[in-house]
Design brief:
The protein has about 70 residues and is of the alpha+beta class. It has one domain. The chain has 2 helices and 2 strands. The chain has a two-stranded antiparallel sheet with strand order 1-2. α1 packs antiparallel against α2. The longest helix is centred in the first third of the chain and has 20 residues. The protein is elongated, with a radius of gyration of 19 Å.
């Protein structure tokens, strides 16, 4: 049942973080121009939005797994 506790805590942390930040931000490197050995690249920040409903569902599922994992000990 230790796995349920760990997964529950992870889901709670991800759900709360997505409530606070509104999604996951990541950087993507893109090649703009490539001419022989010369290459021009650009780094762009992108955001993967996570809705409040999905965040709430993650927190709720995490709490349920945490309670079930602790009750079976």
């Amino acid at each position: 049942m230790r796995v349920a506790i760990i997964v529950g805590v992870i889901l709670i942390v991800i759900g709360v973080a997505s409530f606070i930040y509104g999604g996951i931000t990541y950087k993507e490197k893109e090649t703009i121009v490539q001419f022989g050995p010369v290459e021009v690249t650009a780094e762009e920040k992108r955001k993967f939005p996570i809705s409040e409903v999905a965040s709430g569902a993650m927190v709720a599922a995490g709490v349920i797994l945490l309670v079930l994992g602790l009750s079976r000990r």
